[in-house]
Amino acid sequence: MDAFVESLLGELNCEVVFTIPLFGGIPVLESVVVTWIIMAVLTLASIILVRNLKVENVGRKQLMLETAIGGLYGFVEGCVGHRGRKYIPYLITAALYIGMADLIGLFGFKPPTKDLNVTIALALISIMLIEIAGLRQKGLKGFLKSFAQPIAIMLPINILEVFIRPLSLCMRLFGNVLGSFVVMGLIKLIVPAVVPVAFSLYFDIFDGLIQAYVFVFLTSLFVGEAVED
What we know:
Blueprint (H helix, E strand, L loop, with lengths): L1 H11 L3 E5 L5 E4 H20 L10 H21 L7 H16 L12 H30 L9 H36 L4 H33 L2
Antiparallel strand pairs: 1-2
């Protein structure tokens, strides 16, 4: 059990890969390097998939791509509403990144979402998007007035909610990824053969995609609330 605990702590630690020799040394963590790899893969995939797109006589690859993107746009637009349509590219990008970050452990990399700094950054970006969306839609006066809606007594609760939302998004994603990792580690320790394969399909694949879905779904709902009248 001690070996397992040490192994678990080793997996949870985010080690410094290299240091940039500026301002006394800027440490670059594993989660940052793996994020760069994910960004490179997504960029390369985007370049390959959008090459030679046609208006007429489209091929099977383009048809499948348009169907997938159209389905994602339709799903997210159902959450954010027509007024939040301009924020859909960010939401789809976040879903792709979190999904890949949760699944990349299957290829031997440490998932960036095991690093609390990464989930905090994602939550802060999302909450900034939500508040900016509300500010752009309602204007400064309407945005400030919305904190006293539907009645003035709700003002403290609505202000508190601004700080609770990113905490909720951050801890839900980090906690679920961490919990899945711990459970899989225990299963492999207790029953190391056969059984972990079935659980791995759930915890390493299905649960990772579910967490990406939940994060984007909640962000979409919050954006939809921010831009509504």
